[in-house]
Design brief:
six-stranded antiparallel β-barrel; 39% helix; globular
Length: 296
């Protein structure tokens, strides 16, 4: 009986030794072979698994985030389907901000929804830009010769703003003719009433210093407040009788109809001349000089 127990104990010890001591001795005896087997196992594992880079993960994440953001933009702004989605720069790491080093993953980008532009405001701004013109008040006052210069700047058909120096009244007048000086007419009854106010309530031939504002320029000039040589109720450039200003029978020099003014009045510039005598009118030239020296 004692011999049987001893044999059983020896068998157990041998059995355990075959699983522990012998493999260990084998590894010690053949270390290179163990490393080779380990390398083979590692290579097989790498071939079996696809390689995924951090860039691939980031790109996939951004695509998913962008699709979600576009959906959110359409829900939040249904009337602006063109709302843009941008990625805000990642904030710099601080003591309270988890970073990739501490968390082990790339932080998600921050999405910012940009509202669609206000097209109405843009169109309004663009319209104001197209209709804007230089401010005449900012331009220097000049004395421009009539022949070859002022007659071109203030061409037939142009509408200018005239400011009377004595009263400060401004009115809009259109050049309708004239070659030695400008023959002009008020554009409507309101402007005609202003002209009569400048005249003191009665038409007269007094030469008045004025400033003509046209095409961004301010030109010293002279005018009279005496409409003449036309009838408002008769066709323009037809021969009529009893023309205004005691001009009798002749061509009707009244082109702007319905302005409550019969005929036209005169505006003279530096070195301009009269039509009747083709001479320089000294009183008009004195008024031009007064306007030029006014400093307005």
């Amino acid at each position: 009986m004692h011999i049987q127990k001893t044999a059983a104990l020896v068998s157990a010890v041998f059995f355990l030794t075959s699983f522990t001591v012998i493999p260990a001795l084998t590894i010690v005896a053949h270390p290179a072979q163990s490393r080779v087997e380990e390398t083979v196992v590692t290579e097989l594992a790498q071939q079996a698994l696809p390689t995924v880079s951090a860039q691939d993960v980031s790109i996939s994440f951004r695509l998913v985030s962008l699709d979600d953001a576009e959906l959110a933009a359409r829900i939040v702004e249904p009337d602006h389907v063109t709302s843009e989605v941008t990625f805000s720069p990642e904030p710099s790491a601080t003591a309270d901000t988890p970073t990739q080093a501490t968390t082990g993953h790339t932080p998600a980008p921050t999405l910012t929804l940009l509202a669609a532009p206000d097209l109405t405001q843009s169109e309004e701004t663009l319209s104001r830009g197209k209709s804007a013109s230089p401010n005449p008040a900012a331009a220097p006052l000049i004395r421009m010769p009539w022949f070859g210069e002022a007659e071109t700047v203030y061409a037939k058909g142009d509408v200018a703003t005239v400011m009377d120096l004595e009263t400060g009244i401004r009115l809009s007048v259109q050049r309708t003719g004239g070659h030695n000086h400008a023959d002009v007419e008020t554009i409507d009854p309101v402007e005609t009433a202003k002209l009569l106010q400048v005249a003191g309530g009665e038409w007269n031939w007094t030469r008045r210093p004025i400033i003509v504002e046209i095409d961004g320029q301010r030109i010293a000039a002279s005018m009279t407040c005496r409409p003449h040589a036309g009838l408002d109720n008769q066709p323009a450039l037809e021969t009529v009788r009893n023309r205004s200003g005691d001009f009798g029978t002749g061509i009707n020099y009244d082109s702007v109809k319905g302005n409550d003014m019969d005929g036209h009045f005169d505006i003279h510039f530096y070195k301009s001349r009269t039509h009747g005598t083709n001479s320089v009118d000294s009183q008009h030239q004195a008024a031009v000089q007064t306007a030029y020296e006014s400093g307005l």
